[in-house]
Structure formats: C-alpha cells, structure tokens
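Hi support team,

I've been running sequence recovery on a batch of backbones for a student project. Most finish fine, but this one hangs at about 90% for roughly twenty minutes before it completes. I'm not sure whether the input is malformed or the queue is just slow. I've pasted the structure tokens below so you can try to reproduce it. Let me know if you need the job ID as well.

Thanks,
M.K.
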C-alpha cells in the first residue's frame, strides 16, 4: 500500500542521496528552497559510503577514495559542511610508486608554476630513460588536438602519437589514466584523460596534490551533508527506493516509492544511477543515448594484519601489480565511535580499477593476490600474519569512459520543464569521480533554480 506523502512541505524532490544528490540539496537550501532527498539505502552517500565491520572492529569505506587539489567544487562543498579538515594534505605534488623491477620511485613536483612543476617532476622520475624524459618535453603539443578529435581516440593512441610511449607511458600515464577514469588506457576516452591532465597539472601547481580522507566517507560527506540540508529546511529520507516517475509531455506529475506517493512535485532532480533512471524512463534513455552506456567495475580489498607496518606514504602506486594502488589505513583507525589513533596492526587496502577481469575472481584469489603484492614490498607481512580481509566488488562502479561515450551523457536539462538530471555519468566533461558528481549536482540545482526564477 502506497500512501500520499504527508510529511513536511518541500519544493524539490531529489531522487538519490549519493554525492550528486547531496550536492544538489546543499545548493538548493543555500538558495532558500526546501529539498526532499529520497535515498534507497539506509544511509546517504551513495558509493562514497562506510560501514562498520565487526571482524575488523572499525568502520570501513566501500572503497578507498583519493581527492586532489583540482577538486574545487568538492573541496568547497566539504568546507561548507565543516568536514574539509578531515582530509590529509601533503605539502606538494608527491606520488610514490613501487615495482619489483625498479623498487621505489616517486613523482615529486617542486613548487614551481604549472606546468613547469610537472616537467621538473617527470625529469626527476627515476624509472625513465633519458629518451623518455626528453619525450616529456613534447607533452604540451598533445593538447593542441581538438576535443572532438580526442573523443574518437583512446588514451594510448593519443599519447603514443605524441611521443609518450615507452616507460613514461607504462610507469606514469597508464597508471594515472586507470586511476582517474577507471578504464585501461587502451580503451579509455582520450578527451576525458586530457581534461584530467589539464586540470591536475596544467592550471595550478597544487591541483594534483593528493588529499586522503582521514575519517570514514560517511562522516566526510553523507552525515554532514544530511545535517546541513536538514538544518536549513530540507529533509533526507532513507529507505525510499523510487519505483515510478509519472510524466506528461511537459512535466513530472508524480513520483512513487515503496512507501510514499508524491503528487505534482514542484521540482524534481534525478540523481539516480543511469541504469535506474533508464529503467524508469526507458524511451528517454534510448533517445538521449544513456541507455547505451556500459559499466566499469572496481574491486577493493581491505586487509588487517597482526604485525605493525607502515608504507612510506599513505598512497602507493604499483604499476605492474594486481593492486594498482595501496592505501595505508594504519595512520588512523576509524572506530564505531569515530576517530582514534592507530593500533599496532597494519591496515592496508588494495584497489583494482577497470577490474573487468578481477571482478570475476573468487574472494580467495583476490585476497591472495593483494597479500602477495603487500608481502613483496613489506616482507614482514606474509599472508600468515593476515587476521582479516574484506573484499568489495562494485560491478557498476562507474560508466565505462570509452571513445565517443561523451555523446551518450545527457546535460542537466531534460524534456520536462520541472526536472533536471545529475550524476557523475552526466555531461560534466569529467570522468566519474567525486568532483564530477559534485559538479553535476550544482548544475542540476542551477537548472531547477532557474525554473523557479531564483538566482543560484
């Protein structure tokens, strides 16, 4: 039995309480509107969520996330929410890498103007030959290609055509592409990766600086966003999966969940995954193109050891290993109560992006592979020291950013005057990242504010 909604009044229904929906909600309350966020899960946050694991005895993230200085909208949002200081911030652009063949090496960029700082960092990147380092001098010419041309090319095709092959591609550009786009360079959209490089390395010397959450993602985003929205007149309802969207030719006239029916909502923002929205409005999904988007998986493996160990950096790239990146969670322990000093045991997490192959592996195989990666650079942590492991497979973590995929990503406006769409899969010119989600929420909010005749 579905009842007519009888709760507090609202101005805008936001369908989905992930980062895009929460970003839209924050923008709306700041403009004086009352959003009502409907989230299917028990907690808001979407893929940027956390859960308490009784075996680990701590709060684990659904998957480790890295922010960078170029995430201007996300960092602005966190500052508004009062959680910006929960990010561990280094002094400069510094990324550590390790491989069995080359050992430890790092991309350490000095505090020089961009992009000279990147050039200096690449010239000091030890795995590269003199030939590769000289080839890096020509990287700037790669950006002279039009975005339209790049849309039709893979990252491998684009960079190899501009002399960025060999070790610089294998040791640097390929790992960065996989991490940023969740897609191997051989099948990733060159236009999207070019935009990532522009924003991270060519505009601001601190834009590529890594920022690591030092609290669970739920405490970084979900909980403070919900509190902010509700403090300012909005409401977030969890456990509310959208079942139906009723439409006329011009507007949305109804939304139903398993519990409530919302008749003639003044405004609507869909911040649902594209698969969910396509199931609700299949004809539009087909005509707009986003029903043809594909999904890319991410696999995360959290590891707990009974021996102390600490990586030389909170984040380490392993270009040729199963775990493309290792996160050191030993810096802090996220308990049920919140934030506490690390205990003696090592807490490490391995991440596999673009994990089309690994997502098919068994739990045992994944744990063994990550344990092998860890033992290769931390010999004091053999698998016999492993106390607990948690494998998380996100089969639809992001859309697959293949060449020409941008033509399938809709803008915030929809055919219905009182509805806008948000999500990291929409047309933001960015890959499916925290920043893309935040930007999409802001844009959708501006569309709805314009519909209401309110300045955003």
């Amino acid at each position: 039995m579905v009842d007519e909604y009888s709760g507090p009044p609202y101005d805008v229904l936001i369908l989905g309480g992930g980062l895009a929906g929460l970003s839209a909600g924050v923008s709306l309350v700041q403009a004086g509107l009352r959003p009502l966020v409907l989230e299917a899960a028990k907690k808001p946050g979407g893929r940027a969520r956390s859960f308490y694991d009784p075996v680990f005895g701590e709060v684990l993230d659904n998957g480790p996330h890295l922010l960078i200085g170029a995430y201007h909208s996300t960092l602005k949002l966190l500052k508004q929410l009062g959680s910006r200081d929960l990010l561990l911030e280094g002094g400069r652009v510094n990324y550590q890498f390790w491989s069995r063949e080359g050992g430890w090496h790092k991309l350490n960029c000095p505090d020089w103007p961009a992009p000279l700082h990147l050039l200096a960092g690449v010239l000091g990147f030890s795995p590269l030959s003199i030939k590769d380092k000289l080839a890096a001098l020509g990287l700037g010419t790669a950006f002279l290609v039009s975005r339209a041309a790049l849309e039709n090319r893979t990252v491998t095709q684009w960079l190899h055509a501009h002399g960025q092959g060999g070790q610089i591609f294998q040791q640097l550009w390929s790992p960065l592409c996989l991490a940023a786009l969740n897609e191997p360079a051989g099948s990733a959209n060159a236009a999207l990766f070019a935009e990532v490089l522009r924003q991270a390395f060519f505009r601001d010397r601190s834009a590529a600086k890594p920022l690591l959450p030092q609290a669970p993602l739920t405490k970084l985003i979900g909980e403070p966003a919900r509190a902010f929205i509700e403090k300012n007149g909005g409401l977030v309802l969890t456990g509310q999966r959208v079942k139906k969207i009723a439409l006329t030719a011009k507007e949305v006239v109804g939304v139903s969940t398993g519990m409530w029916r919302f008749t003639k909502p003044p405004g609507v923002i869909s911040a649902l995954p594209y698969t969910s929205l396509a199931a609700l409005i299949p004809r539009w999904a087909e005509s707009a193109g986003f029903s043809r988007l594909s999904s890319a998986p991410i696999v995360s493996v959290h590891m707990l050891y009974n021996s102390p160990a600490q990586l030389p950096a909170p984040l380490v790239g392993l270009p040729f290993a199963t775990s493309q990146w290792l996160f050191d969670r030993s810096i802090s322990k996220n308990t049920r109560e919140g934030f506490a000093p690390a205990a003696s045991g090592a807490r490490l997490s391995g991440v596999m992006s673009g994990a089309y192959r690994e997502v098919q592996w068994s739990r045992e195989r994944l744990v063994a592979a990550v344990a092998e990666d860890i033992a290769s650079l931390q010999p004091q942590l053999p698998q016999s020291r492993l106390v607990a492991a948690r494998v998380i497979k996100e089969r639809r973590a992001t859309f697959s950013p293949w060449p020409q995929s941008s033509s399938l990503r809709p803008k915030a406006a929809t055919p219905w005057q009182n509805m806008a769409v948000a999500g990291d899969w929409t047309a933001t010119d960015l890959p499916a990242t925290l920043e893309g989600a935040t930007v999409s929420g802001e844009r959708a909010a501006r569309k709805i504010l314009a519909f209401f005749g309110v300045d955003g």
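--
Follow-up from support: It reproduced on our side and the slowdown came from queue contention, not your input. The chain has 13 helices and 23 strands. No action needed from you.
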